[in-house]
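Wed. Picked up where I left off yesterday with Carboxymethylenebutenolidase. The coffee machine is broken again, so keeping this brief.
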Amino acid sequence: MTDKDLHARAIALHDSFTHDHHDRRAFLADLTRLAGSAAAANALAAAIAANPAAAAIIPADDTRLKTGTTSWNTANTRKMAGYWASPAKPAGPLPAVIVIHENRGLNDHIRDVARRVALEGFHAIAPDFLSPAGGTPADEAQAREMIGTLDLAAAVQDGAATVRMIKADKKSNGKAGVIGFCWGGAMTNRIAVAAGSALGAAVPYYGPCPDPAEAAKVKAPMLLQFAATDDRVNKTAEPWIAALKAAKVPVQAYFYEGTHHAFNNDTSAERYNKAAADLAWGRTIAFLKKNLA
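Structure written out below (tokens, as returned):
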């Protein structure tokens, strides 16, 4: 087995652990058999997992930006909290972009992504979808467990309400887009369904796609970003893309050759693919600027 094959199989095991069974003992046993020793397995697991201590691309105190935390009401007296970032000296109201976190909740990496969005000339907000459960904990395993127990229908409505909220924000030009990653990619698709014409653009990254029957409810242009080796997600992709096209939704979809699930996450040494991430990011920003101007 080549190193490339070993790493691909290890990532598949990790994805099964984090997205399906959540049994860490079984995951480490399988990874040890694959890697050949417990020490090798632990090193490989650490390289695959996101590193919460990884340096930010855009520092939190970057003087080109203003940032902060905020909260807002959604449906049924629920409240959401989140992080926002905007250019420090905007020429006027800005297109608004919601940045949705992975299955580890709102963490420093997603705050960093929100700052990257803001530097491109947007008012960005990163909601914490674990707000109704008390907010994202520091423990990533606990955050994943909490994500798994969320009322998904209520979370989708929270997302749609956030679209309406940010469109009305005084920093916004009245147009809103959504981007999301992994769990957030799936949520981005669902919000596109739920928000209808209130949403101006949606960019889900490697998120499992909804029932194709929901495609007719989507009114926003869609840019779908997939990892070519991500079989778990990609089996849902083609039916969704076909349904969007049949519903006359403007849609673009890209499958990045040789990439793994979460290839945009630069805090994971094994998953991150800089070339693909940069290409996907350039397409994302151009798409948002075109549709939210």
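Quick read: The chain has a mean pLDDT of 90.
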